[in-house]
Amino acid sequence: MKRFLLPAALFAVSATLHAAGLPASIAAQLPTGYEPMVFRAGPLIEGGRRSLLVVAHRRDDSVSSPSPRPLLIFEEQASNRYRLSARNDTVVLRANEGGQCDPFDSDDGLAVKGRYFTVQNGVACGAHWTDFITFRYDTQHRAWLFDSEIVTSSDPLNGTPDKTDVMHTDHAKPVAFDTWRPAR
Questions:
Q1: 119-160: per-residue pLDDT in tens?
Q2: What residues contact residue 62 under an 8 Å CB cut-off, 6+ apart?
Q3: Domain positions in the chain
């Protein structure tokens, strides 16, 4: 009986760690000195292959010691392994870029629907604002491209009018995920 309990316990711990953590093969591809902040399944791409979105940051990332937060897109290969296909260091805002609050909520910061995903930056500390930046997988270009950015702001304490700015992609001039930069 004892010889069955130890392997079963080890399997349970191993399965829990794997389910809660980033797969080791992907973690090994993170930039040196970075760890995963949040990750989630991304859009399916051609052939039904999977993608994985990973926001990385430095261990000491905080408002007083902000680090870049690269968003990395990994694509499943024919071998079922994942390869880093795109990286953008500016789409996820740093901890000190939200005023009083960290503008990226690791619980709600990434949204995925169909071939699209959105990075949801925003704060609600005094003045409220959101900056939702959406990208899509384009099968024609076989690339991740900018789709739209929606910025909203309001200041309920001062009674200023709400404001919304929307920018859509120019399909004649596609912008690749890795080259997209904020207009701010």
A1: 999 998 877 899 999 999 999 999 999 999 999 999 878 878
A2: 95
A3: 2-179
